[in-house]
What does this fold into?
Amino acid sequence: METSPLRWLLPVAVMAALVIGWEAIVDLNDLPPYILPSPAQVVETLIADHAVLLQSMLVTLRTTALALTFAVAGGVALALIFASARIVEFSLFPIAVILQVTPVIAIAPLMLIYLSTDTAVLVCAWIVAFFPVLANTTLGLNSVDPNLRDLFRLAGASRWQTLVQLRLPTALPYFLGGLRIAGGLALIGAVVGEIAAGSAGQGSGLAFRIVESAYRLNIPRMFAALLLISLAGILIYAVLSLISWLALRRWHESALANG
Amino acid sequence: METSPLRWLLPVAVMAALVIGWEAIVDLNDLPPYILPSPAQVVETLIADHAVLLQSMLVTLRTTALALTFAVAGGVALALIFASARIVEFSLFPIAVILQVTPVIAIAPLMLIYLSTDTAVLVCAWIVAFFPVLANTTLGLNSVDPNLRDLFRLAGASRWQTLVQLRLPTALPYFLGGLRIAGGLALIGAVVGEIAAGSAGQGSGLAFRIVESAYRLNIPRMFAALLLISLAGILIYAVLSLISWLALRRWHESALANG
Amino acid sequence: APAARAADKVTFGTNWVAQAEHGGFYQAVVDGTYAKYGLDVTIVPGGPQANNRLLLPVGKIDFYMGANMLQAFSSVAEEIPTEVVAAMFQKDPQVLIAHPDVKTFEDLKTRTLFISKEGLASYYQWLVADYGFSESQVKPYTFNAAPFLADENSAMQGYITSEPLAVEKQGGFKPKLFLLADEGFDTYSTTIETRTELVKENPDLVQRFVDASIIGWYNYLYGDNTKANELIKKDNPEMTDEMIAFSIAKMKEYGIVDSGDTRTMGIGAMTDAKMKSFFDKMVAAKVVDGGIDYKKSYTLQFVNKGVGKDLAK
Amino acid sequence: MNAAIQKPATREPAARMSAPLVSLDGVGKRFANTVTALEGLDMQVRQGEFLSLLGPSGCGKSTALRLIAGLSEPSAGTIEWNGEQAARRSIGFVFQEPTLMPWASVFGNVHLPLKLAGVGRRQAEPAIAEALEMVGLSSFRDAYPRELSGGMKMRVSIARALVTRPRLLLMDEPFAALDEITRFKLNNDLLEVWRRLGCTIVFVTHSVFESVFLSTRILVFRARPGRVSAELSIDPDQPRDEAYRTSPEYVGLCRETSLALARAMDAQ
Amino acid sequence: MNAAIQKPATREPAARMSAPLVSLDGVGKRFANTVTALEGLDMQVRQGEFLSLLGPSGCGKSTALRLIAGLSEPSAGTIEWNGEQAARRSIGFVFQEPTLMPWASVFGNVHLPLKLAGVGRRQAEPAIAEALEMVGLSSFRDAYPRELSGGMKMRVSIARALVTRPRLLLMDEPFAALDEITRFKLNNDLLEVWRRLGCTIVFVTHSVFESVFLSTRILVFRARPGRVSAELSIDPDQPRDEAYRTSPEYVGLCRETSLALARAMDAQ
Ligand SMILES: Nc1ncnc2c1ncn2[C@@H]1O[C@H](COP(=O)(O)OP(=O)(O)OP(=O)(O)O)[C@@H](O)[C@H]1O
Ligand SMILES: Nc1ncnc2c1ncn2[C@@H]1O[C@H](COP(=O)(O)OP(=O)(O)OP(=O)(O)O)[C@@H](O)[C@H]1O
Ligand SMILES: [Mg+2]
Ligand SMILES: [Mg+2]
It folds into this structure.
């Protein structure tokens, strides 16, 4: 199936059907563009305003990439700390949960007092994205085959060796699952962060374009910005899926051809 | 370790240390309450305003519970559809990703045109929460032991039987991991939904209290509301962890005592 | 004139939670002015997000409280069939709030400014064009004054009628206030917008709503507003008497509602001259496109009739 | 030395007469990593016989069993079913690894094939109890797989394969993890089942003694690439009891089989 | 019948003389599910001996091995190390299941214990190659576990246990999944290793023949609760070659052992 053209054609067909359905809804209900613009109008706007939109997209993508990097680093680091002992996990997980559920919108002003705008946006995006990495990696680190664990114990493996050579590989499929969730979250985290704490004006990200367009009731442009976010999301997901597949294809069921 | 009092004492001690650290920061830097209120002030406000805050919390918790329920239902249902064939997964996953990365803040005003406020808030919270359930369950459904799969094939199991009796149990630990992530997300989803689409006034949730308090510079009350959200998050996580443990303790490594 | 027929049901959406800045409308509800004009009005309070705005063109609400004329211009640009039929505020209450050491408006150019995204997309562009402010000095304002209070070297946006009180109480100082309207940002505010279709097909209904609202505002400012305030507090339990008193005092002090043209034409007054002046400024500031037909954004059909002028004190 | 198929002329076993159930013709199996597990494999499974596959580790016995079961597709050659078509639908498979569902109890695991066939818990109870009795695990019906010893897991797997009374039983070293006494007992039980049900059994084993004791025919495989290197037939009517185990005939057959195996290994 | 320990008076094997390495005294093991795997187990492992554990499936052999290795704690009794303390730190364990890391190649899996001891890939190469050569898997060094047959996986596990040249080797049915010829070869190789390194081996098997061929001492276990039911000693100086396999002495010992096993099973 890997080589079948269907693998690429069908998703494209589904997307096409979606766009056609969207167009049909707009046409049949005769919706004005300020309620729901037609796909054609959105694409037109995208082309017309591509300079400013693409520049904003780059800003947002940069934040996303950074946030994802830190989410991975922070999530895995925390998971490793939690993995040192169940008691540590019990003690510190509540703090991670607090971080996860704190609405960034609410604490952004506080962050703005002490952090630069860019850093504040990044912290917002990070807060949104790190938890799935942490939770899934922790789950994976705790799912080690007990026989292999015994083997490592017998071989006199240090905590560190057991971690790096046994628990981390075991956690890999779980971690990669968390990463795929975190990819999208880092993107909306970046958008929400921009809304909550982001600088505005010329050099700003897609969030500002959305707010600005909404304020000006330029809904086609707002949708163009949303479209870019969707495309970025799909791209991020595809890249992360590819990474997963490359990392697991030799050994994990989820990545094998006939899965 | 299950029975050791440490298991409960240590997390409490960590929390206490956190609160003391917070108090110390406020005292040492002589921070005014409008920047960072001391824990004592927050608790005072919580007690003084408990009537209105608890009522708001109930509203938010109701939304959270509903959103989580729908996130589980929707995430699992989608995962099951995806599981029917890899090609379906490839075709439909982009749509799920689009849903995940669409900033609810941006589309909430549009939803309000066609949906009641309550429904719109719920949809926002759902959008935020469903993806981890979907992604993790899909991963789990694809991680079936190939030998067991063969066994089912030989026994002439129908697709449905294989799904229910083989793939779903295999996916259970992954699903429960996704559920723990989704619990917190449903909560912030509810908060963000309230901010994005929520009505103000009498019957509104914690998000409104936060925005309102921030606007009035009643920061102690804002923190009291944030504290309630944190407590709710920890509670949700604890309940979901308990459910996980109950479901897996007989057979999955991650839930076994010496994990 | 009171009619025997059943009152027309109309819905009016505001753009923020209930507060004294909406007082006139609440007044008309509680003192029976709307009823007298054959209207059964439901007020739908807004929130931090301006959700009510889109509900107007789709017909979920009949009248909407617009913040300023810029939004009305956008509607024309986007071909949204709505227009402004009256302006309750002669001046936009938008203010820049600064620490006491700031002497002149120009001094703000060296300060960090906390401006909301909407503000940045609107009046701030004019500040850039007319006064030479820059975007790089802006940090986002999220309707929380703490960052401003924490940073001596900053200023923030606000409504003259609300934020200054919070700043006074929490910061313990009387802030310097610069009303943008007095610096040249001469838009009307707290407008009443409705669908063009309603103007065409039911001008009588529109006229009745405008007239009753104007009378409501006179009574709120100059009459007994206790009941209106009760209703505001009911819609927004956070509201305090102190806040309301402060807001009313500021509205009067700065002539937000009743000043200039209203002395002759009554509250709600609008003129082509002032519209043109504001439009030209915004075009110069590149906030709006000079090509749009701004005259389509409003109609003078329902105002400048001196309705209720006798109620002023 | 050459690996030509050996056909002891001295025997004309009745099993040879029976109709073929499955025929493998020139079957080859290459894996994605280019390992050729089987090449040019010609073999038949005959209706009602007890066929043993013997051969060195890694020669493709498990692969052949999976091909017969239809669990994987040959990359060359054909596999044809000519006999009783019902057998194709009623296959019991004992995998080389226990392959138990970790989330189900012993009872649940043995119940599985019946459950999949629509037989409820209550109804299946006697059959399950009987199967567990046969493998000596009656007292462990509520235990979970991780609480069982290696041999016990394998016995659960055997019970699961027998509980449906399949027409074709494919067993991949089912008794390797069992002590000799349990093994002997299960050998006898298996023969009893085979006779009673009249089913066909394909049995992979490493024990020459076991294969000679149980089977009506033995195929010896050689490795790299895997194919049949020798064939031995044994009179199906021969009673398989303790006396047979010590009979000179048995000893002779064992020696013959051992030699064939040794030759198959030398051929590599 | 009673399960008193049998001590054949006719033998006085040299192994008996050697110092005990580990002593288990009155050891019991109960699991959380209240299964009593072992109760009152008294046994010793002696310095340099080749000790076989024989017994019915589920009698606690694997549990005993894990207790000796220190992988689980007895719930009653004591385990004492009196001999060479180095052995305690240098244990090779072949689990009953292959227990390979699915993400590592055959080479990587065999490398593991050396890597954990700080020996790099380059340095470990010759030892790994030798171990793979011994189990006949040289050409599969880059394959992944899921690409191996059952017997091949087990051989990787054996190679991994041997590669460190441990002082104490605990093997849980290592050869059960192997054909007889490979098994015989590995029997000889293992004896060779044992002699060359002078290590101590505790070997769980189900094959009476294998145990008699390999060991200097055999402990027969009985089940429920698991404990030692008989002990047999074999002259360690006896050469273990093909001649021995057919010697009347060997056959006699096998019969004796089989009887002890049968008695142990009857005792249940
Ligand atoms: N999934 C797979 N991918 C690649 N190679 C495989 C796969 N399965 C088996 N092989 C290879 O095919 C050959 C035959 O394997 P098979 O499992 O059939 O052997 P076997 O005769 O059952 O051996 P054993 O007695 O050790 O179980 C082996 O060389 C093995 O490496
Ligand atoms: N983790 C466990 N939890 C509960 N019971 C267990 C566990 N491990 C083993 N047992 C029980 O302990 C007993 C002995 O098991 P053990 O694995 O030691 O047997 P064994 O002698 O190795 O058998 P086999 O020859 O079948 O491998 C069995 O009855 C088994 O059910
Ligand atoms: Mg095999
Ligand atoms: Mg065992």
Summary: Chain A has one domain: 46-257. Residues 103 and 128 of chain A are 9 Å apart (CA to CA).
